[in-house]
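User: We ran a pulldown and think these components assemble together. Before we commit to crystallization trials, I'd like a predicted model of the whole complex to look at. Sequences follow.
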Amino acid sequence: MAAVNSPIKVLLVGTGALGSIYAWRLDVSGKAHVTTVCRSNYEAVKKDGFRINSLAFGDEVYRPHNVVRTVAEAVADGEIYDFVIVCTKALPNLVDSSDIIAPAVRDPRTIIMLIQNGIGIEGPYAARYPNNPIVSTVAYLDSSQPSSGTINHGVVTLLDMGLFSPTTANYNVGSVAARVEELGEMWRDNGVHVLISEDIQKSRWAKLVWNASFNTVSVVSGGNDTRQMLDSAECKALIRSLMVEIIKAGETVTGSKLVYLGGFEKPDDIINNTDMLPKPVTPSMLMDFRAKRPMEHAVILRNPIELAKKHGVEVPHLETVYALLTMVENRYLTQSKL
Amino acid sequence: MAAVNSPIKVLLVGTGALGSIYAWRLDVSGKAHVTTVCRSNYEAVKKDGFRINSLAFGDEVYRPHNVVRTVAEAVADGEIYDFVIVCTKALPNLVDSSDIIAPAVRDPRTIIMLIQNGIGIEGPYAARYPNNPIVSTVAYLDSSQPSSGTINHGVVTLLDMGLFSPTTANYNVGSVAARVEELGEMWRDNGVHVLISEDIQKSRWAKLVWNASFNTVSVVSGGNDTRQMLDSAECKALIRSLMVEIIKAGETVTGSKLVYLGGFEKPDDIINNTDMLPKPVTPSMLMDFRAKRPMEHAVILRNPIELAKKHGVEVPHLETVYALLTMVENRYLTQSKL
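Assistant: Here's a predicted model for the assembly, 676 residues in total across the polymer chains.
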């Protein structure tokens, strides 16, 4: 029996290199209407849509169902969204991003999906919207936005998602899970690799193994790509030490082994895998550093460090890198350059 | 009974902001003839001498007994030196400075005095000149060389010196000690505060408490003076952690409490003392970084870390900062800038 459903209404906040691909793969399903909140690229996208060049899906101009500048604009006509998907960078030290979506979370059925890196990203949303389901999602995606509205994408599309703290939920977990599954199915139908995880925190910590090491060190070492980092024995040893600390912290905090999507579980394997890539990787944090943008150190380092210490895990290498990273950022965000 | 002695012959290698002051205070005694090996400032000093502005000793043009470009030139006329004093930066990872003085160490009575920072500086000299006494010396001096041959000096003059490994010496320790005391007395007569220490390593480690923390962090944090470092709670905590590790390592390696000349023994006291200085301090390593000069990380971090680990002391904060510092240096010494 084919049910005739009205389209799922999705509001996607932060439609850059990452958000645009996931918005596109939903919108093309025809089963979802995606309204994209565009900030820096609004003019370009409103006028010409997203010019997407994707190895996986081909080249296409994607015109979202609706393009707006702000969340307030997205709800000005009284629209109620089934999903609010947050794809902004996680910068809780600078912005309470739970604040930004407030106008669109008027209905307790609205599901908040956070597609962001790091640990502890759900806290501000859970505190502010205790009755709304939160889907914590980890993305692996190889895309970039070389100019406003132009998106380059490779072949990776993975979304790994799970309900945040569903055991204490004020909602029917089964029905929410069904709606998330429905959304996931739309993505899957359009080529996105979607996983639904029981304990998403294990995936979050696993992704952190790379992000809290290569990403952060690339900046505090003075601006180095993966090749340059691994060419220094001391730096390689440091990256390994950071990974060991994250794994120990993650396993202690989550109470079990982490779930590694790449198939590499040991620091040396993760390092060797990076070492053998055909081209050096310029970590995203280094790109932020070079562009003098804020870095995601609160969710990549600060929150994991705090959780680790709360659970009695010593993380001296992480603490050192965190202190230095915030200082480095402070110099370019608030002070004159050297 | 007043003995009529011929002047002590001193060769001083590395006559910059530090070396020039100590050369001057010896040379003015009339009891020593100081030959200064000048590199970058040779032309200026040969022509006009050192133009010294000293709060402690007044303003004076100091013309050394002899000014040469190289150690070879200093011995070209067959001169035998009683003391060879090395005041160069300690960069054993780049230069074997024991090599540089070789032409002047032809006589087993020649005493080698090293006025340098860090740990393990004596090793290459002891290996190469097993029969020569080595006087390991720590200097506290507030001087700078704003332009070639112009030296500004404040009021601090301290030299803390001790024989390196005298228990295994191939020479008469008593007679060497007497000659060192004689040299020290000449300095004292001309206003230099000279201490002779039984175990100079305790002083070296104590000086490292500041150098391995504030100095190194000033660079890897992106270029910050003491005020900027202490204004960040995380950075202050990091500096404290580095100090704790150095003190533990130093106490374990030397087998006893360190000897702090400043009177401050605890990390918090050392930090507070720095915090209360009327002006922020720009650490010397940060000045090297800004001028794209090599940094003394091998003797300030690498050697202490190796010794610590050999003695079973964990030093994760120091290791992290060392890995990053060498990467940062590598970028400006060998690679293009960001």
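The first helix of chain A runs from residue 17 to 27. That may be worth checking against your pulldown data before setting up trials.

User: Thanks, that helps.
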